[in-house]
């Protein structure tokens, strides 16, 4: 017989298998009691265990050149600077044996759009956070014969050039504390927004202007989370304070536009969840108040010095979901929302379309109350087959509205099939209706509009829709996702207003792992929205119609190849095309008139090469290109129409280029 050595752990297990053990004197075979003095552990290694103490992550630096002649390219390239650009990035973690950890993340700091995040502490005790983000959005380079000076708009023969762009910068500081059953948090953030946005005034003819923006929003959050074995709860507070430093606008010594007033909002929320066996119950209660008490522009007929606005809100939700059997699940919820407008009221001098009639009328404060009820069920017919169905109802009551009550009912069904290898099929169908109380039953609104007019969000409507989602994985290197949908809205009782709308489209994604080193993707999506509208110029029955056709398309593809130069070089290419077209055709008394296409398109491409210099260092060269074009007949030059003040022709037609060199260093 071949001889062998037996250590104490093996001997104890053999003894337990061959000997009856008394329940009172049961042996303890815990690993901590084993005698390992004769066990050789020199060759013992953990292949997946790593020491995470110290610094880990990577640091990055970027330098590039932009070739930009239209600031709109900054939305794609991250910066509208024409010339040299620089930025830094990082993702660094630190941890020591005592449990202290820190994290520093940064993305393209130095460009117009970037962010940074810092956190430090112990995850199961206390953590402090700091955040910074910068976002800049570009519309166009504008021209105008109006000059701004502390809120005063002054006409001039010379042209004022400025950027229609908004810059947002946000900083935040937060603290989390965790102890046993509860976690407390508190945070403060402040966001500033500056720049110019397109707007318009009437003085007395319409004038397009670049309105200055200079505001900041301060937000304070605090709360506590508590949890047990089968429950959790949270109590939180949110306070938001908006301060506008922009001035009211005046033109020819007359006020023409009031600046957005300072305001604040407060909200207290209590939410929780409880699980009883296979039933989950959750609830939420929120109370809030919004306050606006800024001074008003004083003009003839205005009896108020300040608005003294106040809106109280109350929201609640109760939801229950229960797994009754292994096949059947039932769920339901009730939502309540109340908007109580407590703002001040006064009598204002009224203007009529026939001129000044000398009448006084009190402003109205609208209250809105919503009730939403949902019930649904899910049943597994067999392995791989599941059906879901539900009914939703939303009841809305509005004071001082064209229609005081509306209710939307929706019946839907979903069918899911997973029974076939490589296939996942989801089909959804929906039928919905909206109806409600009598239209224009309120004395405050019945005289303002054509009695035949129906606002689309208040009118009776019938909706039918269907959606199909398909996921197919024919083999290990190809996966296909396809979604197609169709919906139609019918406003059968509307004579003036939106009468019909149709929305349909598809989205397709194909992912390819063609080999160990080659990966690619292709995606495509299209959407069509067609709507019909009827109107009246004579304040009677409909005497003109409009057909609006909108079309959107997105196409993209990309490929990457790795393994070059002894697995040190990876190259790739990405391409995207998008296009949108809007066409409006009006028909009146037998004559047709097309407003022409309002369309835009963009081609964008990115080519890159990433080279690993060593295990710790890598360099990446990236080239980005964008071709952008749009046209809108409503945009005209500053001198195209005599006497009209515009922002110039702010349509776009440009090519933009960017070359970026990035260096990355890995910390180990």
TrEMBL record:
Pfam families linked: MtrB_PioB
Entry annotated with the keyword Signal: yes
UniProt keyword annotation of S-adenosyl-L-methionine present: no
Keywords in alphabetical order: Signal
Domain of life the protein comes from: Bacteria
Leader sequence segment: 1-26
InterPro entries the record matches: Decahaem-assoc_OM_MtrB/PioB (IPR020016)
Name of this chain's protein: MtrB/PioB family decaheme-associated outer membrane protein
Organism listed in the record: Shewanella intestini
């Amino acid at each position: 017989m071949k001889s062998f050595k037996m250590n104490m752990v093996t001997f104890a297990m053999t003894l337990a298998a061959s000997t009856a053990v008394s329940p009172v004197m049961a042996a303890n075979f815990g690993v901590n009691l084993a005698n390992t003095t004769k066990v050789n552990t020199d060759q013992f290694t953990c292949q997946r265990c790593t020491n995470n103490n110290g610094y880990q992550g990577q640091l990055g630096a970027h330098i590039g050149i932009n070739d930009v002649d239209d600031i709109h390219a900054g939305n794609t390239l991250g910066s509208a600077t024409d010339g040299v650009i620089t930025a830094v990035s990082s993702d660094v973690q630190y941890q020591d044996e005592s449990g202290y950890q820190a994290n520093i993340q940064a993305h393209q700091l130095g460009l117009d759009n970037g962010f940074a995040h810092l956190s430090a502490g112990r995850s199961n005790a206390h953590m402090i956070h700091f955040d910074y983000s910068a976002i800049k959005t570009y519309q166009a380079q504008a021209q105008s014969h109006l000059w701004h000076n502390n809120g005063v708009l002054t006409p001039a023969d010379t042209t004022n050039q400025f950027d229609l762009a908004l810059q947002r910068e946000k900083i935040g500081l937060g603290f989390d504390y965790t102890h046993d059953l509860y976690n407390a948090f508190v945070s403060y953030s402040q966001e500033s927004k500056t720049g110019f946005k397109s707007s318009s005034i009437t003085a007395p003819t319409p004038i397009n202007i670049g309105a200055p923006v200079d505001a900041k929003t301060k937000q304070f959050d605090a709360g506590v989370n508590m949890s047990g074995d089968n429950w959790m709860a949270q109590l939180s507070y949110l306070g938001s304070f908006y301060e506008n430093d922009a001035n009211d606008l005046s033109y020819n010594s007359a006020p023409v536009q009031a600046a957005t007033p300072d305001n604040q909002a407060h909200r207290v929320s209590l939410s929780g969840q409880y699980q009883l066996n296979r039933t989950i119950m959750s609830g939420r209660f929120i109370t809030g108040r919004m306050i606006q008490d800024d001074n008003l522009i004083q003009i003839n007929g205005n009896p108020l010095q300040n608005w003294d606005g106040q809106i109280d809100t109350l929201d609640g939700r109760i939801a229950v979901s229960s797994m009754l059997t292994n096949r059947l699940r039932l769920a339901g919820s009730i939502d309540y929302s109340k908007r109580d407008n407590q703002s001040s009221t006064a009598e204002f001098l009224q203007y009529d379309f026939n001129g000044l009639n000398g009448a006084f009328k009190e402003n109205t404060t609208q209250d809105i109350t919503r009730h939403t009820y949902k019930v649904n069920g899910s049943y597994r017919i067999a392995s791989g087959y599941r059906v879901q169905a539900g009914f939703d109802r939303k009841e809305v009551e509005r004071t001082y509205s064209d229609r005081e009550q509306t209710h939307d009912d929706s019946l839907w069904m979903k069918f899911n099939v997973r029974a076939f290898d490589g296939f996942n099929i989801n089909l959804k169908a929906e039928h919905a209706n909206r109806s409600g109380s009598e239209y224009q039953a309120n004395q405050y609104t019945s005289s303002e509009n054509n009695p035949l007019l129906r606002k689309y969000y208040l009118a009776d409507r019938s909706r039918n829709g269907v959606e199909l989602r398909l996921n197919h994985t024919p083999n290990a290197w190809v996966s296909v996702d396809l979604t197609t949908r169709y919906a139609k809205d019918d406003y059968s009782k509307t004579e003036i207003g939106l009468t019909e709308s149709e929305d349909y489209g598809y989205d397709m994604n194909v992912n390819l792992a063609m080999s160990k080193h080659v990966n690619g993707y292709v995606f495509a999506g299209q959407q069509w929205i067609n709507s019909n509208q009827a109107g009246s110029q004579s304040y009677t029955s409909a005497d003109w119609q409009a057909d609006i056709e909108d079309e959107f398309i997105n196409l993209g593809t990309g490929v990457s190849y790795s393994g070059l130069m002894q697995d040190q070089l990876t190259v790739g290419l990405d391409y995207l095309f998008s296009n949108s077209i809007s066409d409006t055709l009006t028909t009146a008394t037998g004559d047709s008139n097309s407003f022409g296409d309002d369309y835009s398109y963009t081609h964008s491409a990115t080519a890159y090469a990433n080279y690993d210099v060593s295990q710790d260092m890598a360099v990446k060269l990236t080239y980005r290109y964008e071709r952008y074009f749009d046209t809108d007949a409503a945009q005209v030059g500053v001198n195209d129409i005599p006497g009209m003040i515009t922002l110039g022709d702010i349509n776009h037609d440009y090519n933009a280029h960017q070359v970026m060199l990035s260096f990355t260093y890995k910390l180990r």
